[in-house]
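Repro:
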Amino acid sequence: MNVTEVHQDQSNIYSPGNASGNGSLPSLDLLSPHDTIINIFTILIVNITMISLGCTMEISKIKGHFIKPKGVGIALVSQFGIMPLTAFSLAKLFQMDNMKAVTLLICGSCPGGSLSNIFSLAFQGDMNLSIVLTTCSTFAALGMMPLLLFIFCRGFPGLENAIPYAGIITTLVLTVVPCTIGIAINHYKPKWAVMVKKVGLSILFICSILVVIMSGAAIKDVLWLSLTAENVTVAALMPLIGYVLGYVLSLIFGLSAQCRRTISMETGCQNIQLCFAILKVAFPLEVLGPMFFFPLIYMVFQCIEAFLLILCLKCYQTFTAPAEDKRYISVAIKHEAANPA
């Protein structure tokens, strides 16, 4: 089965004659008159995200972690081992059709994104390690992502030769280039990097809203199909499994608490912008249908679960912190009382 046949097959899944036999769903053949515009904005979002991400990376810190690569190695194994395997297992467990399985595998094979850096900071992780991990996983995805898709798609009949690897690799290359540009800006013109991040954030916010609105309008009649119990359950389980197993794996290898928290966040947080871009470039919107919004559902749950983990850490630290000595209002006064003249 080739890509065209898979496209035709998946289009038929959402066609009027295949809605549980009642013909209640609209055809997706003409759902996306603004498909090209959505593609442009999607790629623009990824480019801006990766340039901004590159502007947070410092070559000296990257070199430091390569000298002692234990944490980086464990994190990469977690990122490209735990998450794709989790996606594959859940797709098999829920007996998902080809389009859903592909979406899940692409989402699970994506590298970590900039959101993981924010969560690592809030989770009191090692920020240097977090930024290095995001850098390494971004560049490693160029080879790892096509390889993982090639391996795991063998488990789904009809998908062996259906993945558009050329489109995926092209998208990944287009993300690595702006990331490299961002690193160069931060290295040679660090003052510019601050401005680039601020301007990039504003443009990113506007473009993201436009893409969501246009995509929602394109598949508005079948948008509700993305909110099935199956999709919501899988989207909730994937990041949670990533957070937990990333932490457990780093614990087994004896990493510090800071590193464990960082790897946990880096494992469970996927680069959702990249996932959107790959799905949009690799498959027509009429083929993707409501699954185009699965990464958005995933992002919501990865944020909620990360917030809950951060909240649990704060509560733990609050209740286990030693009681302060209320007799002294400062270290200086306490020292003076302990050592009178």
